Amino acid sequence: MRFLLLAFVMMTTIAGIPDYVKLQLKPGPVQVENDRPATFEVRLLPNKGIHVNAEPAVNIKSLTEGVRFTIKQLPRKGEYVDPSKPIQVDCSVSGFTPGPHRIEFVLHYTYCSENEGWCRMNRDSAFVEINVKK
Description:
- The chain has 134 residues and is mostly beta strands.
- The protein has a single domain, classed as Immunoglobulin-like (Sandwich), CATH 2.60.40.
- The chain is built from no helices and 12 strands.
C-alpha cells in the first residue's frame, strides 16, 4: 500500500499586480492511499472591501499529469465565498513512483471591489510537495 505525504507551499504572485486576495494553504502533511482522494484546505482571504464571488464558480486545475483536483466543498456566504471557512479540495494522484514530487496547480476565481464597483478574474498558482511512500 502506498501513502502520500502532502505539504503545501505557495508560489509567489505576479509582480506589479496588487495583492487583493491572498491564497492560504493549510499546512500538511496529509496522508492518503494511492489512487484515493485526500482532502486539503485552501482559503481565499480578500482584503477589506473586496469579496470573492461564488459564481462564476471557483475552480482548480492541476498542471501536473496524473493528478486530479476537485473542489469538494465551497463555503458560501450568500453569493460570495465565505473567507472565514476553508475551501475543501480533493486531490487524487496515480501512477507516481515512490519519492518526492512537486504538483503544480492553478486556482481560478473572480473577486470584486465593493466600494469601486469593479470585478476581475484571477488565477493564483501554487504547488503541493508530495512524498509517495510504499
